[in-house]
Specification:
With 237 residues, this protein is α/β, with parallel strands linked by helices. The protein has a single domain, classed as TIM Barrel, CATH 3.20.20. The protein is 41% helix and 16% strand. It contains eleven helices and eight strands. Strands 1-2-3-4-5-6-7-8 form an eight-stranded parallel β-barrel, surrounded by six helices. Helix 9 links the parallel strand 7 and strand 8. The N terminus is likely disordered. It binds cytidine-5'-monophosphate. The site of cytidine-5'-monophosphate (C5P) has 17 residues, from strand 8 and helix 10.
């Protein structure tokens, strides 16, 4: 299949840099194939636990070679020293976005932010962004006050952004207007939602104040990922 060029997508470079491709696969060959095909629509490649467990730092280097910013979604949660050191490795490897669980508490979050930023600076790289996970979408028992509490914690610890559901965007924007808002659960109108009960379209997420949109199965498991991306983003720009 011929690879599409950026010019044919209709997405501006600025909009493309707000799209993160979730490479939730266990094989670097498959991840590379998807990343190469979908590069015209995405500026950021998200490597999660599945791909990182399978391929480790090779996955990061492959995505950097394709020109992506790397989003390492390891959702770190451990003692502060361990998180500081792990985040430091990510910073030195050239990761731009790294996730940590806000439920790990202020000392852990601060240690992670420091380790991440200091290593990137030592390597002469631009300042990266630590992202806090407030609540997993699978945690349907989480009480309502937990998102604002964890958001406050994340901001005080120096996290530059948070991952939240589209339904939390308005509150998050009011409470922390300068914090980057990262939103998963993106689907085309009327598409299969899988396990994303709060799915929104790209335009809805952007209108509600999302800065970075995480898109996975809506394109990665489509029979034709390129056509799926073209259809998903057709209403933007
Ligand atoms: O649903 P989709 O495949 O687009 O998911 C993309 C990303 O969204 C996943 O990599 C995961 O990090 C996140 N996710 C989530 N809640 C779910 C399922 C996935 O936040 N219920």
């Amino acid at each position: 299949m011929a690879e599409s060029t950026g010019a044919s997508t209709g997405l501006s470079d600025a909009m493309r840099d707000r799209m993160a491709l979730a490479l939730d696969v266990d094989d670097l060959v498959e991840a590379n194939r998807l990343a190469r095909q979908l590069r015209p629509w995405f500026g950021v490649a998200k490597i999660g636990l599945e791909l990182f467990t399978a391929a480790g730092p090779d996955a990061i280097n492959s995505m950097l070679d394709l020109g992506y910013d790397v989003f390492l979604d390891l959702k770190l949660h451990d003692i502060p020293t361990t998180v500081r050191k792990s985040a430091g490795v990510a910073g030195a490897l050239g990761v731009t976005y790294l996730t940590m669980h806000a439920s790990g508490g202020p000392a852990m979050l601060r240690a992670g932010v420091e380790g991440f930023l200091e290593s990137a600076h030592r390597a002469g790289l631009p300042t990266p962004t630590a992202l806090a996970i407030t609540v997993l979408t699978s945690d349907s028992d989480a009480p309502a006050h937990i998102v604002p509490n964890r958001l406050r914690l994340a901001v005080e610890a120096g996290c530059g952004g948070i991952v939240c559901a589209a339904s939390d965007l308005v509150d998050v924007r009011q409470m922390a207007p300068r914090t980057m808002r990262v939103v998963p659960g993106i689907r085309a109108v009327g598409a299969e939602r899988h396990d994303q009960p709060k799915a929104v379209t790209p335009a809805e997420a952007i209108d509600a104040g999302a800065d970075l949109l995480v898109v996975g199965r809506a394109v990665t498991i489509a029979d034709d990922p390129v056509a799926a991306a073209a259809a998903l983003f057709a209403e933007l720009d």
